Amino acid sequence: MRVEAEEGKQQAPDVAPRWPRRPSSVLAGSREGLAAVSAALTGAVGSALAIARWPTGPLRAGAPADVLAAAKAALGGDGIPEEGMGSEAALARLGRVLVEHGLHLSHAHAVAHLQPPPLAVAVAADALASASNASLDTYDSGPSAIAVERWLIAGLIELAGLGSSADGVLTPGGSLSNLMGLLLARDAAALRRGIDARKEGVSALPGPVVFCSELAHFSVHRACAALGLGEGAVRPVPTDSRRRMSPDALAAMLRELGPEHTPLAIIATAGTTDFGSVDPLPQIAAIAAEHGVWLHVDAAYGFGTLFSERLAPRLAGIELADSITLDLHKLGWQPAAASVLLVSDAKAFTALERQVAYLNPEDDSEAGYDGLLGRSLQTTRRPDAVKVAATLLAHGRRGLGDMVDTCHDLARHAEARIKAEPELELVAPAELTTVVFRYRTGEDPAREDEINGQLRRRLMETGVALIGRTAVRLDGPGSPERVCLKFTLLNPTTTPEELDALVNAVLAAGRACSPRYQKGAA
Ligand SMILES: *Cc1c(COP(=O)(O)O)cnc(C)c1O
Question: What InterPro entries does the record point to (predicted)?
Answer without folding.
Answer: PyrdxlP-dep_de-COase, PyrdxlP-dep_Trfase, PyrdxlP-dep_Trfase_major, PyrdxlP-dep_Trfase_small
